[in-house]
Amino acid sequence: MAADQFSGGTLMPSQFTEFSISPSKIRTPLTLIPVTVKQIIEAYSSSEDKSSITVDGVNLANVRLVGLAMNKVERDSEVSFTLDDGTGRIEMNRWANETSDTDEVASIQNGAYVKVHGHLRGFHGKRHALAFSVQSLADFNDIALHFIECIYVHLEHVRLKGGPTQLQLNISMSAPSMNEYLAPFPNQFLAHSSMNDFGNDIYNLVLGTFHEPAMLAREHGLQVDELFRRLPLPKNKIMEAINYLVDVGQIYSTVDEFHFKSANVC
């Protein structure tokens, strides 16, 4: 998917100001880069220098992750937890040195979605990150937005390098009311579509929107035009994803051919 395909909808590439990319900035370690756990794990596994993690030619130091907080353990001045973003899991540590830190640590709850700004350093033989900011997510649009940003930044980094733009996130998104994650889509998912290597990720983003609690609570589900506004992706790709999800029984039409609802209501 070309980077200019993100120009539709409400999210424009120029809005990615937090991590604006230029050739002179691409290797700056202080840049806060949105990534998935899968990217970190694969980069760590393929790196000979475990203290320096590189993705798409960029040294990862400060990163942003979004996922589900699990296995929280509190100590006197520290809390540790596992972050699961649907692509993998990573251990996080958050120190509480001030009152504001203590309040933030207390807000971390098992089963809650959080946005983490963290620092990857000296893995010491284990994948983990030191968090310097943990925020609870109340708007589930932030989850889909994060993965879209991951795709966009990946494309920009690879474009600057002049390499092929391929990324498999295999996102398995869920809502807190669900008992377990959705299974990643099988490889034949792409064979059904004329999309490129990002087709799988688009399907997951579309399905993840239908699985948001607010969408599950609607009697008639989600209207197609609203989905177009929520996801800054080409309309034909969104419709292709909808048609496939209907074919495999993940969603179904309700009052008319423009309203759809998830078939997996827990």
TrEMBL record:
Gene3D superfamilies, sorted: Nucleic acid-binding proteins, Winged helix-like DNA-binding domain superfamily/Winged helix DNA-binding domain
Broad class of where this protein is predominantly found: nucleus
Stated role: Component of the replication protein A complex (RPA) required for DNA recombination, repair and replication. The activity of RPA is mediated by single-stranded DNA binding and protein interactions.
Record keywords: DNA damage, DNA recombination, DNA repair, DNA replication, DNA-binding, Nucleus
Family in the record: Belongs to the replication factor A protein 2 family.
Stretches assigned to the Replication protein A C-terminal domain: 154-257
GO cellular component: chromosome, telomeric region; DNA replication factor A complex; site of double-strand break
One Gene Ontology term of the molecular function aspect: single-stranded DNA binding
Localization in the cell: Nucleus
Protein name per Swiss-Prot or TrEMBL: Replication protein A C-terminal domain-containing protein
Organism annotation: Vanilla planifolia
Record-level GO BP terms: DNA replication; double-strand break repair via homologous recombination; nucleotide-excision repair
